[in-house]
Predict the 3D structure of the following.
Amino acid sequence: MAEKNKKKATTVRTTVIKWFWRLFGIFLALIFLCFFLIAKGRIGYMPDIEELENPIDKYATQVISSDNITMGTFSLKNSNRVYVNYNDLSPSLVSSST
């Protein structure tokens, strides 16, 4: 009787181990599939290596005085950011400058 229970426990353990490896294999396959789909552009956007190495820095910072004269522009290129109206600035930003 003890031999029968031992054999049954071994069979159950073997079955559990086989299912564990199957689930692990499926998990690895899904991760591989996810990376493959990202690389092919099916999921999300992945820029080219050249674009990552040489980003386009088209944004600049402008310092404008209270009489609406541009005092300076800080940028790596000659492009500018989108203009923000004075009324669009945060009140805490405006009040901290006085």
User: Anything to note?
Assistant: Strands lie at 61-64, 70-74. Helices lie at 2-40, 49-53, 91-96. The chain has a mean pLDDT of 79.
